[in-house]
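[audit] Reproducing an earlier prediction to check determinism. Same input, same settings, fresh worker. If the tokens differ from the archived copy the diff job will pick it up downstream; this log only records the rerun itself.
[audit] input (156 residues):
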Amino acid sequence: MSNRKMVNVTALLLSVLYFGSFAHQNSPQISRISIEENVITIDFPQREGRSHIAFSKDGGENYESVPLSAGTFSFADLEDDTYDIWARWGNGEHPLKIGTYTISPDIFYIPVTFRDFHSDRSNPEFEPYWVKADTVKGMVQDTLDHDGKPILGPNP
């Protein structure tokens, strides 16, 4: 066990993990990416009509193929560096950039889970306890700014 400050990443970014909006419908799908120590692990679902998926750590120059039935693939013993991870089907169709990941002792990855928090009791299992009488209204506006961030309301 090394002194590295890297832990498992259950979700890096929603845009990284949900390719449906960004990728071609027939592109490989990735269900999870994790980085731990000097290993990048990619989990992927089965896909009807496909038997193999291939991954590249060098921007799509070289690929390693694995049967879809494996469900997971790892790049192990990676040096401290930045890696452009790509996926494509085993027959070379539909290459897709998954993302750029850096292995470094100075980077600390933490688990991230995306939830829909409205604090309106629509997700009570993920919300802190609150009493309606203590609710402060007008802290943020009902719309978001051009970057998709909340805008301060009249009572911040």
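[audit] rerun output stored. Observation attached for the diff report: The beta strands are 32-36, 39-43, 52-56, 64-67, 72-75, 81-89, 96-103, 140-144, 150-152.
[audit] end
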